[in-house]
Amino acid sequence: MKRIYKFLPLLAVGLLMASCYNNDEEGFANKAFIDASEMTAETIIKGEVGVITKTLNITTSRPVETQITATATTDVSLVEKYNKAYYANAVALPDSCYEMVENKMVINAGSVKSSEAMLNFSKLGSLDRALAYVLPVKINTSGLEILASADTYYYVFRAGALINVVADIENNYLEIYPWKTADRVRNIQKITMEALVYPREFNQLISTVMGIEGAFLMRIGDAGIPDNQLQIATSSGNFTNSSMQLTPGTWSHVALTYDRTKGEMFIYLNGKQVGEFKTTVPISIYGNGGDRNFLIGKSYEDGRDLNGYISEARVWDIIRSQEEIAAHIYNVAPTTEGLIAYWKFDDMTSSLVKDYSGNGNDIKAMKGNLTWKNVLLPAAK
User: What is the DSSP string of 37-57?
Assistant: First the structure.
C-alpha cells in the first residue's frame, strides 16, 4: 500500500499536465498559411521557355468548420521587403510577363487544404540576363486569420547558362555524308550557316569552321589575309574584308546568309553585320562521298583544323534576319522553320554529335573521340 501512495503524486501531476495540454489545444486558434516549405520559388530561365504555369494554395492547422475563401494578389510593392529578407537585389517582374489566371482559393468545410490559385508566366527569355526578377503574391483570407509569416509567396526568375558543355576539336574534325535530308541539301538556293567558336590561337594559315573546300566554305585566314580573318571561300571566288576579324581566346559567333536568287550574301560577327557581297555562286554543301564532303573543323587536308572549341553549329535552308541571328546566338528552338541540321555539341559522347533539328543529320568525329569542356555561356556579367 505504501508503494501505491508513493506514486500517487506523480500520477496527479501527469493528469494535470494532460488536462492543461488538452485545454490549450482546444483553445488554440485555427489559422491558414501558404502550403509550402519555403516562401520562395526560384526558376532558372534558359532561353525561350514558352509559358510556365505556377499554382499556389493555402492550408490550415486543422479542418475548418465553415467554408473559407482566400484571394491571391500580386503586389510589387513587396519587392523591397523580399530584398531585405533574402539579402537580394531583385527587381519587379514586368507585368507583361505574367497573368493571374485564377486568384480565388476555397477551403471547404471539414477540409484543411484549399483549391489552387494559378499564374501563367511568359516572355521570360527576353528578360535582362544580368538581373534577378521577383513577383510577390500576397494572400488575403476571409473568415479565418492567415499567419503573417506565411501570407506572401515570392516567385523569383533569373537567367541560367544556356550552354554548359562544348567540344574541343583541335586536331580533329567532323564529317557528314550522306545527308538524311538529301533533297533539301542538293537543291538549296538559300542558306544560313552559323556557329559559336572559341579559337585559342591562330597559328596556321587556315582554320576551318564548316563547309566544303573549293565549293562553299566558311573558314578563317588564307594567303594574303590575316590568319584571324573570316572568309567565305567558294567555287567562284572568296569573300572577306578587314571587319571580319576574330579575337583569339574569345567566344565569337560567326554567321553567313546567302540568297542565290537575289545574289546577296551577308556576313555577321556576334550578331552584327560586317560584310555584304554580291554573287551568284552555287551553294554546294552535299558532298561527293569522297574527298569533298561537308566538314566541320577541316577543309580538305590536315593542318587546317580549328584550334579551339565549338558549339551551336547550324545549317538552314532559309535566310535568317540579323535580328534572329543576334537573338539566338546561344540557343534556338529545334523546331524552328528552316533548320536542316542543329549540332549543339553538348552530347558528351565519344564521336557522334546529334542533330537536334530532328532531321537525323548527325555528324561524326573522324580522328578519334571528342574532348568535352564544361562551360557557362553566356558568361555572367
Answer: SSSEEEEEE-S----EEEEE-
pLDDT band (50, 70, 90) for residue 91: very high
**Residue 165, C-alpha cell as written in the block:** 558543355
177 burial level (CB within 10 Å; 0-12, 13-18, 19+): middle
d(CA 104, CA 106): 7
Cα angle 111, 115, 116; round to 5: 145
Q: Taking 60 as the threshold, does the pLDDT of residue 84 lie above it?
A: yes
pLDDT digits over 287-325, tens only? 999 999 999 999 988 899 999 999 999 999 999 999 999
Q: Where are the alpha helices (DSSP H) in 200-333?
A: 322-327
- Written as one letter, the residue type at 225 is I
Q: Are 155 and 41 in contact (CB under 8 A)?
A: yes
Q: Please give the grid coordinates belonging to residue 151.
A: 501570407
Whole-angstrom distance, CA of residue 297 vs CA of residue 210: 6
Q: How many CA atoms lie within 13 A of 329 on its CB side?
A: 19
Residue 80 to residues 75, 92, 129, 132, 356, Cα–Cα distance (Å): 11, 9, 20, 13, 42
Contact between residue 364 and residue 176 where contact means Cβ atoms under 8 Å apart: yes
What are 256-288's pLDDT values in tens digits?
999 999 999 999 999 999 999 999 999 999 999
20 contact partners, CB below 8 Å, separation of at least 6: none
C-alpha distances out from residue 232 to 63, 139, 191, 195, 361, Å: 73, 60, 13, 14, 23
- Which pLDDT tens digit goes with each residue over 132-157? 999 999 999 998 999 999 999 999 99
Q: What is the pLDDT of residue 380?
A: 63
- DSSP-assigned letter for residue 78: G
DSSP assignment letter at 245 = B
What is the average pLDDT value for the chain, to the nearest integer?
91
Closest CA to 55 of 87, 20, 102, 91: 102
The 10 Å CB-count burial string (b at 16+, else e) for 254-289 is: bbbbbbbeeebbbbbbbeeebbebeeebebbbbbee
